[in-house]
Amino acid sequence: MTPLAPHMEAFLREYLVRHRGNSPHTCDSYAYSFQSLFEFASHKLKMAPSALMLEQLDAFLISSFLEYLESTRGNSPETRNIRLAAIRSFFRFLQHREPAAIEQVRRVLAIPFKKTDHRLVPYLAQEEMQALLDAPDPSTRMGVRDRAILHLAFCAGLRVSELIGLRIDDVASQSVSIRVRGKGRRERALPLWKTTAAALRAWLAIRGPAASPELFVNARGMPFSRWGIAYVLRRHTQTADRKWG
């Protein structure tokens, strides 16, 4: 039997970060996928996750895990496919490290993704978008920060990971443009609208010193997380709904 832990550590800490250059958020998503898988396998096989062996992660167990996600946990097919993508990435990595496991790898890689519907993404009318941008209170520190976040996200069309990954040194002089690091370490420079530049300068003027180099920090001076951005968006969406309604 082959210990699983060394392969998993090499995959998460070396392969994803050093060889593929994945962002911390992508690595966290992969790690969460395997955390869920190991919890399922531990319960099913009645053994501690640390005792799991590579041979036990066969196609049958992984298929059972994917079925469990949808039938018991109520996850969507999209979430199931995300977990499967992480698992398949690990097994593609594994085929170069464990030649003896090539048949196990082949069976796992043969597990298909589920077809999903591509829903039309809704959008806000100009008046609705303006109501959202105006929702934060500019007389408070958090309001100034949140207004800059919303303006920048709207103007530059940033992914959440790109937004929270912005650093102070990514902002050009006079806040007329920003440098964005996207997927695959691709960088791009984006000019800013005057209103967005003004909102960003207002935040930089009061941001003050913080231990974190990220552009946007929370009340504790720490970098924003995805959930922090979701909270900001949800709160101001509710405010805009009340004003709009």
What sort of overall outline do the alpha carbons produce when their principal axes are compared? elongated
| Total number of domains | 2
- Note the total helix count: 10
Q: Describe the oligomeric state of these chains in a short phrase.
A: single chain
Residues in helices, as a percent range? 55-70%
**Top CATH class of the largest domain:** Mainly Alpha
- CATH fold topology of the largest domain: hpI Integrase, Chain A
Euclidean distance between termini CA atoms = 63 Å
Taking all Cα atoms into account, the compactness measure Rg is 22 Å
CATH architecture of the largest domain: Orthogonal Bundle
Taking pLDDT < 50 over at least 5 consecutive residues as the criterion, the unreliable ranges are: none
Q: By helix and strand content, what is the structural category? A: mainly alpha
**Helix and strand succession?**
HHHHHHHHEEHH
The CATH superfamily of the largest domain bears the name Intergrase catalytic core
What's the mean pLDDT score? 89
Q: What topology, given as strand order, has the largest sheet?
A: 1-2
Largest sheet: 2 strands, antiparallel
Strand content: under 5%
Number of strands: 2
Structure description:
This protein is mainly alpha-helical and 245 residues long. The protein has ten helices and two strands. Strands 1-2 form a two-stranded antiparallel sheet. The radius of gyration is 22 Å and the shape is elongated. The termini are far apart.
